Amino acid sequence: MQGATTALTVNLAGLRVAISAGAGGIGRVMADGFAARGARVFVCDVDEEALAGCPHPATRADMAEAAEAERFVDQAVASLGGLDVLVNNVGIAGPTAGIEKVTPEDVERTLRIDLAAMFDCSRRAVPALRAAGGGSIVNLSSAAGRFGFPLRSPYAAAKWGVVGFTKSLAIELGPERIRVNAILPGLVAGDRIRRVIEAKAQAQGMSFRDKEAELLRSASLRCYVTPYDIANMALYLCSPFGATISGQALSVDGDIQYLG
After folding, report:
1. Could you read off the pLDDT of 50-73 as tens digits, one per residue?
2. Which of 71, 75, 131, 222 is at 20 to 30 A from 205, Cα to Cα?
3. Is residue 224 annotated as a catalytic residue, yes or no?
4. Per DSSP, what are the bridge partners of residue 42?
């Protein structure tokens, strides 16, 4: 079974959208999808090569630094003349190791980029969303944000934190018509999940094929999802179709039941 290969068709004309880590991967598919439907998009990324090939207005920003996260949002607001949508897409895989081999630096960097950067960007974006009369924040969590994920504890801790952050912020900002939701991808086809599976297989003394098959069996649909599946959820949430959806942790994962 295959996931989506194109983005949802909705009219998003005039929507002003900022996407972190938006020059490549899932973020780029989101940016292209928003732009193709009439939105104006501003992205950031730390990957110079991805930025060089990105057709959208962009800036380099390292989300490991709070000041750079805030600068990204400020530049997006200035470039777009305001803000209607913030997509907190940035994230790293973090270490694959048993807890006794995870260093304090591993933990700090993973939590900094996968969770704290969302606080930084959201804090800076809220005044602009408020000035627009409301808007939407979409946070990228993970299936690891609702299951335990052995050998990936810093990543799982951050992604569980994203869900708590999302639900709390939705309650806080709801009276101002700012909606906040989280998307929880599962096994997203691409190089990143291949590297994760390779690392887990090695750590557990398994072949790549056996580990991949085990993970795919954990999803009732027995499939990878695609970046378009994730982008389509973001487009839906930020469109008029999602006007009353807030505070939700929405899984796009082929119905994963556990992560081994």
Report:
1. 999 999 999 999 999 999 999 999
2. 222
3. no
4. 18
